[in-house]
């Protein structure tokens, strides 16, 4: 059975689908099963993962003793050269403004790279903690299940006759039979078989 909307003339159905207004152009529908075309951007395109890995490598190097030794040797060589070299070969005179600028530039790039590396490490730690939490929940659930199973086995074994229990029961029965034992007639008289005849 058709609905009330489908019973109208075909041109009415098409008119419902078309946008209103005389100057409106028909809209193209975006397909949801296809990815959206990439937009052009004025910013350079880069891989965030590759940039993050590079920043972690730089941050790791900045935190080593090798970096401190090389930085110290570079600064000492810079200062010695600009103090003891002939004046026409010096490129940074006594207040060492160019050295200060270079160190400031290095620090201004090092700080964000270190922060980016720390953020990535925080993300990894968060994922690891979540996985550890899920693993702990599974371990707790498994432990509770095994505890219930062991308790059920103990209850079941409490009703099962064990070898020691059967042995003790048989010994009790033998003892009771010996206590209740009634002597047989030939045992009472103490005589031989010939006397009984």
Topology:
Blueprint: H1 10-17, H2 48-62, H3 65-84, H4 97-158, H5 163-180, H6 185-189, H7 193-196
Explain this structure:
Helices cover 67% and strands 0% of the residues. With 197 residues, it is mainly α. It starts with 9 loop residues before the first helix and ends with a helix.
Task: Provide a concise account of the structure shown.
This protein is 67% helix and 0% strand.
Major beta-sheet overview? none
What percent strand?
A: under 5%
Number of strands: 0
- The SSE string, one letter per element, is HHHHHHH
Question: What's the shape?
Answer: elongated
Helical content band: 55-70%
Rg result: 48 Å
Structural class: mainly alpha
Which labels suit this protein?
mainly alpha; 197 residues; 67% helix; elongated; single chain; 7 helices
């Amino acid at each position: 059975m058709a609905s009330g909307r489908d019973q109208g003339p075909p041109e009415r159905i098409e008119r419902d689908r078309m946008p209103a207004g005389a100057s409106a152009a028909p809209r193209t529908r975006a397909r949801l099963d296809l990815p959206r075309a990439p937009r052009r951007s004025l910013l350079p395109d880069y891989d965030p993962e590759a940039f993050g890995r590079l920043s972690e490598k730089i941050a790791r190097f900045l935190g080593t003793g090798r970096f401190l030794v090389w930085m110290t040797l570079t600064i000492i060589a810079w200062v010695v050269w600009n103090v003891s070299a002939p004046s026409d070969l010096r490129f940074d005179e006594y207040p060492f403004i160019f050295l200060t600028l270079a160190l400031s530039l290095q620090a201004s790039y090092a700080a964000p790279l270190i922060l980016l590396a720390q953020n990535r490490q925080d993300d990894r730690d968060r994922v690891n903690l979540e996985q550890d939490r899920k693993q702990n929940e599974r371990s707790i659930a498994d432990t509770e299940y095994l505890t219930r199973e062991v308790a059920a086995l103990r209850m079941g074994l409490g009703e099962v006759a064990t070898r020691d229990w059967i042995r003790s029961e048989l010994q009790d029965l033998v003892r009771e039979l010996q206590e209740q034992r009634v002597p047989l007639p030939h045992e009472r008289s103490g005589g031989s078989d010939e006397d009984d005849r």
